[in-house]
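Can't attach files on this board, so I'm pasting raw text. These are the components:
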Amino acid sequence: MEQIGYTQVQPDLDAIFAALADPTRRAILSRLADGQASVNEIAAPFEMSQPAVSKHLKVLERAGLIERDIVEQRRPARLKADNMAAAVDWLEEFRAFWGKSFDQLDNILVHMKQTEAKDKGHE
Amino acid sequence: MSDVTEYIVDRLFDAPRAMVWRAWTDPELLARWYGPGVDTIIHKFDLKPGGEWLNEMKWGDKSDLSKAVFQEVVQEEKMVWHHSSTDADWNIVSNPMMADWPRVLLTVVTFEDAGSKTKVRLTWTPLDASEAEVACFANVMGKMSKGWESGFAIMDEMLVEMRADKA
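---
Top answer:
Structure tokens for the assembled complex are below.
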């Protein structure tokens, strides 16, 4: 499984996957993909209280999927792309493991069949 | 929830069962296809109950080690093994990328005739797993189910955009 070169700390994939398990949090991430936003701005489309949104943001922040500005009062949140990429890559590789391996096995079987046919031809 | 604590892959191979079995059990052939786009080195392959398959996958300067301990072998029909990540001395360790990934996965592979073809089914189930391990496995498996695909597609689009922005 490929590791991301520049993150000093290994992304915590358990935390990332747990954070991504919730549809609201995925929607928040989609929103943040369009650019940074304050809690108010994030809460607006969700019919959700600010504290509820703040809770979700905390989970995302702990998972390293977002970071929040500590200087600005409204503490806008923005996406941290590298950790997200690590999680997606891991899942992609995991999902592809048997599929890609089996494609390779297909090729070998074709080869084995050809060899067998050739051997039979010589008998 | 039980459906997500099991990972099943079905595949039809266009070859007779004896040949597919050989491709799975001859270490030289197995090394040629096992592992996607990596160099696979099989350090040991002892196909009998209690026997070990010590496997190394190399890509770039990275290496992934795993151990399978065979539990059941029925010629051309079925193989059962316990699958784990290992350290350099082949001791079982937790997954280097995910601490809560189940340390032992019960792997069952069955081979069945389907006309002139062969149907292979591979099943992964966490073995003697802690609650955290089951949750982690279910979580990852859940993401691979349909419901998550749409969320996943959004994520992929986002990543493409973000990578494009960075470049």
